[in-house]
Amino acid sequence: MEDFDVVVLGAGTAGETLALELASEGVRVAVVADGLVGGECPFLACMPSKAMLHSARRHRLCGGPDAEAFREAIAWRDEVAEHRDDSAHAEELARAGARLFRGRGKVSRPGVVEVGRLEIGWRDLVVCTGSRPRLPRILGLEDLPCWTSDQALSSPELPGSLAILGGGAVACELAQVYAAFGTEVTVVQRSPRLLSRESPWVGELMAEVLGSQGVRVLTGRSVLGARTTSSGVALELEGGGEVPADRLLVAVGRDPNTRGLGLEQLGIATAGPLKVDARCRVEGQAHVWAAGDVTGVAPYTHTANYQARVVAANLLGRRALADYRAVPRTVYTHPPVAAVGLTRERAEEAGVEVVSARVELSEVARASAEGERIGRLELVADAARGVLVGASALGPRADEWIGEAALAIRAEVPVEVLADVVRPFPTYSEAYTEALRGILRELRAGVG
Ligand SMILES: Cc1cc2nc3c(=O)[nH]c(=O)nc-3n(C[C@H](O)[C@H](O)[C@H](O)COP(=O)(O)OP(=O)(O)OC[C@H]3O[C@@H](n4cnc5c(N)ncnc54)[C@H](O)[C@@H]3O)c2cc1C
Ligand SMILES: NC(=O)c1ccc[n+]([C@@H]2O[C@H](COP(=O)([O-])OP(=O)(O)OC[C@H]3O[C@@H](n4cnc5c(N)ncnc54)[C@H](O)[C@@H]3O)[C@@H](O)[C@H]2O)c1
């Protein structure tokens, strides 16, 4: 049996980043990968979806035949997704000095992972096994040939009509993509609004945006059953009515991959995400760590990278604690949604005395120059401490300028200082100046 200082289970964003960091510092590290090295993000998720959103936008702006534009979009998507060839990722690991074991890893006993018939020993184990699409319990759904985002982002097919179950990030992004190429898209969201974890106005504005691009958005509607029809599928809605479509995309969230890893051998509960402390160590364990979607903490690529860096620092003997107060949440539609920290509603629920301000982006000079009419920024401050605790935005390039709020929240920059910052004219970031001046006025007036 070959022994390693660290064995990493899963070579997605978290596992790859961690292994590279550790190997470059001379740690003897092994990575076990049962899928593509690099994981979901480059090949199946973030990158192909952003490539499709880019092509969809271009097609909406430039026009032309849908089918031809879609074929070009697919070609671009597959190029961006490196044609699912992970050899460059595997080579980078090898160059850094990490050992790659292809296959499914499982803890066979404390200190040992088996990969097929091979056993490898670990002093520390890091679980980076990611997540998988959730299938809701709906009568008839299991028997249908439905898509998850993986299939939607692999297929060359442009359906005539598409029903999307769910109303989160995947649903909004892919609804916009398919609608741009002429597919009749219906989104069926069970919650009262799209993007249900954001402030209510965000989901309402997103529904307006998608509606204006031809997407039919049904919110607050549950699906009772699903069946195959001669032309595709049909969803039966609670309260009456059906949604027929050529294709069904299920996008109701993802579940962490904790099962079948042998973690019970170590006394780790595998129902739900792996609970980690601020150092990303699995609760109750001295030598088992976790990073990425499997922890259930803000499931984004940037979180997976961040947690991997926190684990690496701790394993290298530098005590590092994760701080999740300012992890951005972004949906890359056009215009995008970008939020960070607490929504006004969450801050109030947490008992924070809140001062908030909203600015319509149509009031910002850059929006006039670019003819953009839709957009808003809302800032939320803690009245007692005089610092920002949250920001929500929907508007042109909000995914880029949300960084200013992330820094302000993370560094606890006083609102006084933020309001005094000079921002370039004419940029969307000038919305911050207006919103911050509003908050400052209220703080000075002593209004909570
Ligand atoms: C359609 C879509 C679009 C997205 N877009 C964005 C975006 O724009 N921005 C963003 O920040 N996030 C986005 N995300 C989320 C992002 O993809 C994930 O948060 C990120 O990939 C998580 O990385 P990870 O390392 O935790 O998991 P993964 O990348 O899933 O890697 C886990 C790896 O572990 C492997 N594995 C599992 N079990 C075992 C085992 N027993 N042995 C060996 N290997 C194992 C799996 O095969 C997999 O390769 C998107 C997600 C989806 C679905
Ligand atoms: N831009 C990005 O960063 C990005 C893009 C896509 C996906 N992702 C990540 O991928 C993961 C999966 O995304 P997602 O959109 O599938 O999940 P999600 O959790 O973001 O949203 C799922 C939505 O489906 C709804 N829902 C749940 N059950 C339902 C049912 N039976 N019928 C109808 N609606 C139902 C919920 O109300 C929720 O709003 C998330 O963690 C997300 O953060 C991120």
Automatic annotation (TrEMBL):
InterPro entries given in the database record: FAD/NAD-bd_sf (IPR036188), FAD/NAD-binding_dom (IPR023753), FAD/NAD-linked_Rdtase_dimer_sf (IPR016156), Pyr_nuc-diS_OxRdtase (IPR001100), Pyr_nucl-diS_OxRdtase_dimer (IPR004099)
GO molecular function: flavin adenine dinucleotide binding; NAD(P)H dehydrogenase (quinone) activity
Domain Pyridine nucleotide-disulphide oxidoreductase dimerisation per the UniProt entry, residue ranges: 327-435
Keyword Oxidoreductase: yes
Binding locations of NAD(+): 166-173, 253
Cofactor comment text: Binds 1 FAD per subunit.
Disulfide bonds, paired cysteine numbers: 41-46
Binding site for FAD: 50, 105, 129-131, 293
Protein's recorded name: Pyridine nucleotide-disulphide oxidoreductase dimerization region
